[in-house]
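Question (not urgent): is this output format expected?
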Amino acid sequence: MLQNPPAEAGMREEDIDTPALVIDLDAFEHNLDTMAALLAPTGAKLRAHAKTHKSSVIAKLQMARGAVGQCVQKVAEAEALAWGGIPDILVSNQVVSPRKLARLAALARIAEVAVCVDDAAQIALIEAAGEAAGVRLPVLVEIDVGMARGGVEHGPPAVALAERIAASRHLRFGGLQAYHGSAQHKRAPDERAAAIGEAVARSRRTVEQLRQRGLACPIVGGAGTGTFRHEAASGVYTEIQAGSYCFMDADYAANEDAPPFRQSLFVLSQVMSTAGPGIAVLDCGHKGVSVDSGMPLVWQRPGLRYAGASDEHGKLVIEDGSAPALGEKLRLVPGHCDPTVDRYDWYVGVRKGRVECLWPVSARGGMA
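Got this back:
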């Protein structure tokens, strides 16, 4: 059930009901503009990853700055974006449920919708869905470029899948999916560079072998907020799938040579108890902020440390004596922005201390 908005346009930030998902609009817009400027001279295009923001509003703002489309991980996310007017969507994942594939094929009537495979059996399932719907679906071959999660072996095994796709009357070969997710949070710059160097090499070899078999490779997609500059400069990757750049989080900020973006996403929380000595309690625990990548940081309050979460409570340890007041509102920086966003129905856009807009998190909970 869609929850009531926690704010109204024009109200002060300190009057927003908590916990609430807040966007600092100046920082957010800076991030969108910075990414567009950094990619412009490289020739690589942005296909922003909507698993981060889950919002057709934000997708349109990214595309207004030159993004060619959006990535998603789930069919339900693709539906939310397509119904919201986004014309070009890649499910950068495998889909094997016939029911889900039928939904995906139905979307092809209102948007360009592509999907990834790493197995011939998946191709047959997508082919059947396309035939039943009377559409021709673009399909990318995912190759393993070092993440060891999904993806067929690069080179001849990937080429064989591409030839199978190209031979189908109901599919067309869309290119390669070559994402190295685990490289994004390697802390040392040289470790990230080495990991992506290998990803680029595997992708380049596969593109060349496709060419030798007479197959063009329209898309080589991958990259993320932590490594996008390497892939964009490679001359191999044509699409950059960064997602978190628009918001940032504490985990990305912990990288050495952190990405050049500002923190724009916060969870606004309120101090609900100061009864314990040396501690304060916030109204934001596991249900309000993700802790899978570590505890959130308290924004611009170095004397306060978010030390632990339970379902509805966040425990602050007061480390320098500057205790927060009962009822005080504090901004938290999530450790991981993507799953934090999925806890909320609304973004509250704030500029200079005032609420400017409210945007629905339209793909929230899109697991199917």
